Amino acid sequence: MKAVNLIPSEQxxxxxxxxxxxxxxxxxxxxxxxxxxxxxxxxxASHTVESRRGEVAAIEAHTREVQQQASRxxxxxxxxxxxxxxxxxxxxxxxxxxxxxxxMGELSRVLPSDVALTSVNGAIATSATSTLGSGKAPxxxxxxxxxxxxxxxxxxxxxxSATPPGAVPTFTIAGxxxxxxxxxxxxxxxxxxxxxxxxxxxxxxxxxxxxxxxASAGAGGCSASDPVFTAQVAxxxxxxxxxxxxxxxxxxxxxxxxxxxxxxSAGSTASASATTGAAR
Amino acid sequence: MxxxxxxxxxxIVVLAVLAGAWIAVVSPERKQAASLEGQVAxxxxxxxxxxxxxxxxxxxxxxxxxxxKSIVSLGKAVPPQDEVPSLIYELDQAxxxxxxxxxxxxxxNSAGAGGGGAAAAxxxxxxxxxxxxxFTFVFKGSFFGLAHLLSQIDGFADxxxxxxSAGSTATASDISGVDVSGRLLTIQSVDLTVEGAASSPARLHxxxxxxxxxxxxxxxxxxxxATAYVLPASQGLTAGATPxxxxxxxxxxSATASSSPAAPAVIRVTP
Lengths: 280, 271
Fold this sequence. Notes:
The complex is a heterodimer of chains A (280) and B (271). By secondary structure, chain A is an alpha+beta fold. Chain A has helices spanning 9-12, 17-20, 24-72, 74-95, 100-110, 149-153, 180-190, 268-279; strands spanning 115-125, 131-132, 159-160, 168-177, 196-205, 228-235, 243-248, 255-260. In chain A, α5 packs parallel to α8 (268-279). Chain A is rod-shaped and about 155 Å long. The relative contact order of chain A is 0.14. Mean pLDDT of chain A is 72; it is low at 128-157, 210-220 and 247-280. Chain B has 271 residues and is an alpha+beta fold. Chain B has a 4-stranded antiparallel sheet with strand order 1-2-6-5. A 3-stranded mixed sheet of chain B has the order 3-4-7. In chain B, 45% of the residues are buried.
């Protein structure tokens, strides 16, 4: 059977609306669809903008409020900084000291029993006074708005130590021994003092010899036949003082100041303590 | 113009209209949204910074009472004025406890008592540092009495070893605080001589193990040069702070309410 098209032949080529409009209908549909998508995207972006604006405003308002609160309390912050700087400065001064008692105790322990001393002159040789604690000034912003005198006081973080790191403690020892070999043994024993860098004999002479030690035979209880000697004991240079760091203290809400030690900051106290411990 | 041409032109026009709408309307709005995202992030950062500052400030407020005690206690080690009378009193007390005679005190190191090689006195420092006050002390007593006296003087202001590092090794330098019981002194030189050496047979003899002669009990003259420190003149002891609050702060009840009276003090003072 053969199919027959009953549509008149003059109407067959016109087709539907799309065909009749020459494709304009498709274009309109695409345009409408595109406009809808654009509108959706615009609406979404606009909504995002509005919500972000509100969010920024809220955050900025909260920030201002928090900043005002911090500003009101800034004198407390400045005061805590002042206190920390003073504690640190004092701790650095304490840490930079030479341990005289330990050195004297060691000296008494290493000397042979047949040696007598007529004088001990200990001094810390330094050419210049260094400044400890520099660079510990607080952040300027922390106290910028406080206007308190604590803020001005906070600038005094640095402190000049009379025994700065690098200074060399020396003992000049004068005395007498029962023989020259005892003097030699004394020099060896003096080197046993921990922290001693060098021991130098300046002179050792019996009576009548031309010793330059400044101590004459017979002085200080030494017999005329005893050799009188003078020696200089130089210690290691004083190390850098430890730097304090804040560590929280549990359960109190406060803090405890402690020193973050470094290898180079083995204070003279610690060094001398170890020395003493070793000698004892 | 064929139907196909018309379709192509219409397609181009539609695309152009959509692209124009995108460029003119949608894209700027999306860019603004993106930039606002950045503003939100930076505002949140600023807020975090401000909250951190505020937390620090609240913590400082909570620690104020303890800090005030500490700073007042530190004034015993480094006072705002020279406080020579209290220094003399402390040295006299310490020497009496060690049966040492406190002979003299003089300001400055002019006596040259430190002997050859004595350290130069710390120069008077600028206003931004602790001011140095050099002194020369003369004591008389036994060798070990003088050694103990020096130990006691060091103990006026001493470091507290941190737990676990109490001098067990040579590098154990951790300290947990400062014990203050008197004036902070830095000893620069110690000159020990036998008192009346030319005429007396007494010998400076430090015996090993305490079995030596009576030399350790000989009367020695110790000339000590040391430096004390005072706060700069521009600072008071507490920089204007009072027990209730620092200078420039409004009194807040939380300043004291939030502080634990049992909070550990950094500075321990032994009267």
